[in-house]
Amino acid sequence: MGKIVEQFHKIDTSTISDALDKNGLTGQCLGIKSFNPAWKISGRAFTLRYGPVDLEKGTVGDFIDDVPEGNVVVLDNQGRMDCTVWGDILTSVAKRRGIAGTVIDGVCRDTNRSFELDYPVFSCGRYMRTGKDRVQVDGVNCHVNIANIRVRPGDIVVGDADGVVVIPREFEEKVLATALEIETAEEKIRSATERGMRLDEARKQFKYHSLQTRG
Length: 215
Fold this sequence. Notes:
The protein contains six helices and twelve strands.
């Protein structure tokens, strides 16, 4: 895990979301969530794009051994809820290889294995039906769309109990700096109210109402 990824790992997705808003960026993946609120992931995206099978019926892919340690596997299955592209074998290999987690615009299966191995999977839901002979890999390490958010190889992906956010690589330092500023201001507000200050006064003093407003 690189230094900047480590820093993002310490920040909640809600704060990162506010930092994205402040910088005029959209990276919040609506409807993508984990099944364990304790799971937290952060890493650079390793992407795959799926599409319906053609006449030759390609496979769902044997890509997992090419994913670098610490990356997040990001699978664009076009939000399909009728078949999965992730299951227990992929979970087992990913855990063994030190992959940070998996994000799917679509569904996963074999959820119990993810719990047993404590391997984080974020998706639209769960469904047991295989994607074999239904979908195939159309692209590896290309741009993909997760809940209408563009994700490119190397973008930073962060997920926690509130969902998944994507930080474009060229804006990561700016978004990180903004997120840290927001964290500092919110901590000052919490501390002030604990000392007895009125919330409206604390928010005004530490400029709460401008924290998420685009600068």
